[in-house]
Amino acid sequence: MLNIVFLVNSWLSSFNQPGLCVTVAVLLHYFLLAAFTWMCLESVHFYLSLVKVFNVYVPKYILKCCIAGWGIPAIVITIVLIINKDFYGNASHSESHPFSNFCWIQENIVFYIAVVAYVFVIFLMNTAMFITVLLQIHSVKSRTHERSRFWKR
């Protein structure tokens, strides 16, 4: 959905309908955040699969992942819309090129908080999960190597 909304964004913005542009910008923002949220959930699943292999039972795991994956971005979008729906709009870059218009977040501060900071937090979490998984794999490999040397002696 992110790709579809991104591809039709400039075409829809050429209609010069403010409501349509706000809707497209909100959808684009939502699906972008949802994609990154699902990426974060994949890293959590990766951690649970490789580090916490045994005795990991999360009741209604898929339901919780779906609520987080689709709900957290919706909360962010709702907060931005409650503060001011005019944060979303048409960013015209050139009058001579009508398809250079793009419906997106108009305020830089909102962009940095609602997109860049969000993605940065997910990047940090993914990095932490990745390092934790690497350390776990390394420790398992070291213990296996120690045991094999012990049994060889």
UniProtKB/TrEMBL annotation:
InterPro entries: GPCR_2-like_7TM, GPCR_2_secretin-like. It comes from the Eukaryota. GO terms for biological process: adenylate cyclase-activating G protein-coupled receptor signaling pathway; cell surface receptor signaling pathway. The chain crosses the membrane at residues 20-41, 61-83, 109-135. Residues 1-153 form the G-protein coupled receptors family 2 profile domain. It is found in: Membrane. The keyword Transmembrane applies. It is a multi-pass membrane protein. One of its GO terms (cellular component) is plasma membrane. The keyword 4Fe-4S does not apply. GO terms for molecular function: G protein-coupled receptor activity. Keywords: Membrane, Transmembrane, Transmembrane helix. This is AGRG4 protein. It comes from Rhynochetos jubatus (kagu). The lineage of its organism: Eukaryota, Metazoa, Chordata, Craniata, Vertebrata.
